[in-house]
Structure to design on (297 residues):
């Protein structure tokens, strides 16, 4: 397949591009700077600029665009940037598809597990309602923008959970502390995080590209776990203690809404669509995922 990827330079995009190429697919990356390789093409999603010809002949478009959720404090300007970097880029891609006589057959547009908001212990499936928090509304608009793709295009919106990697990503700040033996649970630790390893994210996108699945897809591992359990598993794999709990009031004081929605909210998500379709996880259990993060395979 010929696959055009927006957001290919990030942690997930870099790994995913390599996975697609290893599987024998051609990958074209959309970049905001001047292209530095024949496999790159410039676009300006903020201004809605993308040459439709770039998508001509493509079998699929994968949209991973978006400013980092936890990179900076959530000022009003930053929240606006989180929205625009996702929604505007998605609209730009959909608009370009509409200008083609034969648009790409498949549009995989990233969404997030934050779609559901803080749902406590409720098991969340793809038909569960959206939440009302900032990130919930963002994910809802993000998915609605993807749905503007031309009629006949198969649209898939993977609601990706907390991505585990060996460096950077969701564990980027926690892992170094845990390796030093000074990490620990966040808040009361009973909130659920819908976790998934980076290799399984790339493999799931490849699976979705090659399937006939459409609509929202919960992208997380099948084993559900709360923060206490996740931190304990990582600590065991790293052979380090994890006793320095950070209380919720401290997180709220330091990070405000960012702490509430990213660290303290509980999203007990179930990957129903992927499981039913026969997707096989490389790291289906927390023990396997923690071992991979620790570099044991």
């Amino acid at each position: 397949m010929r696959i055009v990827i927006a957001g290919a330079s990030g942690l997930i995009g870099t790994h995913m591009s390599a996975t697609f190429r290893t599987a024998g697919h051609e990958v074209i990356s959309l970049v905001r700077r001047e292209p530095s390789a024949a496999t790159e093409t410039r676009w300006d999603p903020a201004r809605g600029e993308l040459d439709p010809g770039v998508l001509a002949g493509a079998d699929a478009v994968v949209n991973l665009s978006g400013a980092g959720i936890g990179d900076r404090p959530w000022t009003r300007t930053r929240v606006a940037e989180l929205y625009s970097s996702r929604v505007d880029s998605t609209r730009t891609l959909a608009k370009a598809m509409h200008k083609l006589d034969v648009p790409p057959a498949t549009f995989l547009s990233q969404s997030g597990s934050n779609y559901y908001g803080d749902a406590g212990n409720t098991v969340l499936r793809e038909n569960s309602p959206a939440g009302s928090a900032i990130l919930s509304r963002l994910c809802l608009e993000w998915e609605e923008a993807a749905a503007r793709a031309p009629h006949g295009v198969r649209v898939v919106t993977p609601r990706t959970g907390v991505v585990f990697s060996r460096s950077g990503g969701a564990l980027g700040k926690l892992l170094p502390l845990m390796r030093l033996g000074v990490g620990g649970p966040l808040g009361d630790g009973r909130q659920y995080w819908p976790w998934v390893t980076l290799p399984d994210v790339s493999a799931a996108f490849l699976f979705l590209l090659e399937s006939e699945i459409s609509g929202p897809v919960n992208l997380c591992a099948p084993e559900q776990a709360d923060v206490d359990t996740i931190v304990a598993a990582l600590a065991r794999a790293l052979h380090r203690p994890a006793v320095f709990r950070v209380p919720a009031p401290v997180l709220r004081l330091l990070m405000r809404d960012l702490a509430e929605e990213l660290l303290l909210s509980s999203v007990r998500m179930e990957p129903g669509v992927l499981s039913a379709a026969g997707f096989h996880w490389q790291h289906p259990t927390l023990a396997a995922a923690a071992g991979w993060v620790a570099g044991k395979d």
The first strand starts at residue 2 and ends at 6. The two ends are 30 Å apart (CA to CA). Residues 94 and 246 are 42 Å apart (CA to CA).
